[in-house]
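[step 3/7] inverse_fold.run input=structure_tokens len=360
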């Protein structure tokens, strides 16, 4: 359970967690600074790069309260951020408002979720704004025009999304508790639109643009990877940076390909600061870390957080012996030039991995 409680527990826990990461401690007294609770729901889009499985279980608040609340709620109360993103649209769940109301009880914890924008209706925005909680909403758009948006999203919702975003902009002008970032998953299909997307975001009052390279989950998605359009991608990133500067808009971009130099490799801090859990109680590390086979079912939080899996991963990262540095360009930007950093190995056999790498 968290070391700290009370109104300043988030600040105190953050400080201790930062100290323990700096010391590369293996057994932690602090609890995670970020909790990622996968809130899976139905979806009305069919994005080209989607990782959503064919069948998956939707989040159910009663089930969460019965199975996990006693273990996870105290951790959320001490966390600086709660990410409620999962497969699909959490705002399309029948209990969407009840779900958000429940987690709004953790008033000192910032909430974050992703949405394609079609379910971010004026009524939902009013509900979120009225809560008084701090929210960061990631709106997944990936295109600045209707035709490309339909291609990327597999749905014709562009006009409805723009109408919703215009209302969001009006509400944001009246409160300080809401931030909205526009998300661009870069693929070979839309990379040419990135500079226009940045301009579009600035015109529509976004707080920031966040661009990612798409991760390849299935072989039919391989050709979508910007790894196969490196010169074009680099050029579009340069143009996007210039537009963002002209528009005075914050932008977060992935590393370019084949730079003369890259920032130094860092030891990923996520196993010190982040906990991700799905609706089954499985503990999910980041995609490049592979399969964890850890679960909170039948265990206390501390038995997970300082158990064999997390302790081993922290030890490996501390000694530089973990595969993250060779497969994650967030920790080691130079590996963007290796296709291994662009596809997901989690759940794949060695034979399947070899098939993904063929011809790359």
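[step 3/7] decode complete -> sequence:
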């Amino acid at each position: 359970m968290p070391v700290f409680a009370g109104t300043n527990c988030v600040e105190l826990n953050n400080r201790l967690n930062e100290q323990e990461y700096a010391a590369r401690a293996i057994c932690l007294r602090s609890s995670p600074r970020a909790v990622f609770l996968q809130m899976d729901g139905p979806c009305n889009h069919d994005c080209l790069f989607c990782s959503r499985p064919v069948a998956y279980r939707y989040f159910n608040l009663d089930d969460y309260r019965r199975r996990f609340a006693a273990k996870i709620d105290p951790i959320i109360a001490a966390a600086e951020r709660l990410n409620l993103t999962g497969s699909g649209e959490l705002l399309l769940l029948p209990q969407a408002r009840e779900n958000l109301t429940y987690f709004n009880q953790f008033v000192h914890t910032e909430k974050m979720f992703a949405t394609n924008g079609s379910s971010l209706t004026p009524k939902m925005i009013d509900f979120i704004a009225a809560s008084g909680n701090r929210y960061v909403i990631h709106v997944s758009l990936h295109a600045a025009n209707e035709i490309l948006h339909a291609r990327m999203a597999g749905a014709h919702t562009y006009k409805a999304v723009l109408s919703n975003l215009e209302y969001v902009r009006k509400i944001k002008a009246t409160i300080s508790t809401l931030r909205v970032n526009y998300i661009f998953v870069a693929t070979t299909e839309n990379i040419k639109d990135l500079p226009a997307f940045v301009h579009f975001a600035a015109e529509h009052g976004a707080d920031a643009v966040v661009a990612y390279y798409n991760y390849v989950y299935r072989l039919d998605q391989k050709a979508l990877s910007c790894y196969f359009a490196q010169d074009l991608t680099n050029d579009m990133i340069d143009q996007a940076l210039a537009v963002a500067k002209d528009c005075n808009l914050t932008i977060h971009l992935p590393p370019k390909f084949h730079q003369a130099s890259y920032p130094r490799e860092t030891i990923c801090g996520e196993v010190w600061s982040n906990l991700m859990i799905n609706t089954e109680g499985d503990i999910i590390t980041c995609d490049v870390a592979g399969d964890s086979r850890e679960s909170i079912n039948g265990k206390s939080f501390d038995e997970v957080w300082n158990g064999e899996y997390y302790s081993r991963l922290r030890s490996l990262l501390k000694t530089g012996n973990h595969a993250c540095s060779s497969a994650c360009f967030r920790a080691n930007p130079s590996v963007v030039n290796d296709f291994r950093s662009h596809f997901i190995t989690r759940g794949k056999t060695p034979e399947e991995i070899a098939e993904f790498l063929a011809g790359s």
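[step 4/7] annotate
The first strand starts at residue 34 and ends at 37.
Residues 339 and 359 are 10 Å apart (CA to CA).
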